[in-house]
């Protein structure tokens, strides 16, 4: 039975409730994973989501920052979360759908502004977070699983608007790309978006600082959908809903979709 999954860094689910509802009405994914919810779980505005058929939610929240949630039309079992790098942040939650698929929703730390852990603690936390993810996947190899979220790294040259100009910019530095590749390899994860759309520039984030973001198109692909090798061939129809970046009071991220025939 096919199901469609979307991932979206919403940059405050309470502030942007209306565009979440718009996405659910117009696109109707079976599962929507949100990051940077910036809300305690009990204050996430679930009433409108339930009215549209999303009666199931698992989430981890914090006041004012971080936070991840999985909204689902289908029952989903809460499989818990892990505190990678010991940060005490709400950055991961996992659930199992009735078809046996485990969904991991991640919000990897952004890493601050300077790509040097000796001068920027946040950059070190980001690398440590990815290392912990890698080690977990080595120790407990995932099966029949999908990993989504804002991983805050654009790994490929065509995942950024200018590879050479961004080589020293956090989110596209070689050390980050290497850490992400090691994490991906440890779990045998397949990049579903690039499996479906193998060539050409592809972005999911555009800075608020660019007034004419659409025209300038200085984007990065920071949001990802991965799947384990045992189900990757069942994935198709990947896309990024670029138009959502231009909705009223938008997130600076656009939703990323994939469908799985399972």
Question: Care to describe what's here?
Answer:
The protein is built from seven helices and 14 strands. With 262 residues, the chain is α+β, with helices and mostly antiparallel strands. The chain has a single domain, classed as 4-Layer Sandwich (Deoxyribonuclease I, Chain A), CATH 3.60.10. Helix 1 (17-26) links the parallel strand 1 and strand 2 (31-35). Helix 3 (121-139) runs parallel beside helix 5 (174-186).
The name CATH uses for the topology is Deoxyribonuclease I, Chain A
Helix run count: 7
The first-level CATH class name = Alpha Beta
Q: Which consecutive residue ranges, at least 5 long each, have pLDDT under 50?
A: none
CATH superfamily: Endonuclease/exonuclease/phosphatase
Q: What is the chains' assembly state? A: single chain
Q: Decide which structural class fits the backbone.
A: alpha+beta
For the record, the CATH architecture stands as 4-Layer Sandwich
Instruction: Output the radius of gyration.
Output: 17 Å
What's the main sheet like?
6 strands, mixed
What fraction, in percent, of the residue positions are helical? 10-25%
Secondary structure tally: strands? 14
Shape category: globular
SSE ordering: EHEHEEEEEHEHHEHEHEEEE
Strand order of the largest sheet: 3-4-2-1-14-13
């Amino acid at each position: 039975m096919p199901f469609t999954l979307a991932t979206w860094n919403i940059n405050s689910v309470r502030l942007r409730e209306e565009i979440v509802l718009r996405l659910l009405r117009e696109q109707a994914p079976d599962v929507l994973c949100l990051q940077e919810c910036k809300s305690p779980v009990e204050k996430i505005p679930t009433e409108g989501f339930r009215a549209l058929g999303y009666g199931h939610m698992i989430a981890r929240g914090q006041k004012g920052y971080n936070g991840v949630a999985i909204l689902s039309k289908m029952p989903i079992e809460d499989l818990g979360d892990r505190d990678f790098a010991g940060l005490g942040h709400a950055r991961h939650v996992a659930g199992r759908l009735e078809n046996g698929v485990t969904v991991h929703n991640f919000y990897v730390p952004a890493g601050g502004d300077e790509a040097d852990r000796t001068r920027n603690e946040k950059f070190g936390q980001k690398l440590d977070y990815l290392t912990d993810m890698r080690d977990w996947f080595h120790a407990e190899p995932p099966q029949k699983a999908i990993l989504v979220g804002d991983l805050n790294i654009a790994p490929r040259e065509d995942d950024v608007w200018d590879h050479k100009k961004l080589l020293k910019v956090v989110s596209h530095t070689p050390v980050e790309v290497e850490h992400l590749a090691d994490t991906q390899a440890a779990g045998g994860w397949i990049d579903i978006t690039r499996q479906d759309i193998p060539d050409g520039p592809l972005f999911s984030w555009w800075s608020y600082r660019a007034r004419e973001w659409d025209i300038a198109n200085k984007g990065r692909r920071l949001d990802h959908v991965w799947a384990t090798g045992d189900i990757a061939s069942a994935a198709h129809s990947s896309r990024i809903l670029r138009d959502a970046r231009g909705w009223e009071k938008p997130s600076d991220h656009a939703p990323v979709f994939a469908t799985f025939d399972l």
